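With this grant's support, we have settled on a layout for protein records. One resulting record is reproduced below.
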Amino acid sequence: MSWRFLSCAALFITCLLTANTIAAKLIVVGGVVLTAGIVIFPISYVVGDVLTEVWGYAAARRVIWLGFACNTLMVAAIWLGGQLPAAPFWKGDLAYEEILGHTPRIVAASFVAYLVGEFANSFVLAKLKLATRGRWLWMRTIGSTVVGQALDSGVFVTLAFAGTVPAGVLVQIVGGQWVFKVLYEAAATPLTYAAVAWLKAREGVDVYDSDTDFNPVRL
């Protein structure tokens, strides 16, 4: 594996873990309530697009699972840290639990949504590359994000909040996050083009997944 591939994988996982950590804060953008993770999580989709476009679905699949494993380790470490007895003079125990002690339901929802969304994004991008013979990268990256982010937002919000907020509010949250993430991807298109062109030239690879097994559980 080249240092360029490892750098992309590291950036992908860093964005994922950072987004999940800061997601405890709720923000308002244009009247829409979002998690603070929105400022960086869409970057993982941009990097995921680059991984699939340059190195192919199989390579992206390994990075997606590696990200899942790292996220699981982080959640386990945070939980364990919360179970350890605090020093008598430390006053931040309640704040630690409030900010980092995500409920099991939300954690499970984020795990499922991540896998569904990322694999859908990579799958659609790889298939569109074959269908378009490698043309119209902008259409393929935005199109795959439309599908992947719709599934990610829909699965997460439904699993995490169904039954706790009105259905209309759920739809608004899903729609708001989806629109924001797609616009984020569209705005990043010039950067995606530049990164893909540079990596293909330096790596000397441009994988087409014509014979790839798209089973997501294979490594």
User: Anything to note?
Assistant: The chain is about 75% helix and 5% strand. The chain has a mean pLDDT of 92. Helices lie at 3-22, 41-55, 57-83, 93-100, 104-132, 137-161, 167-187, 189-203.
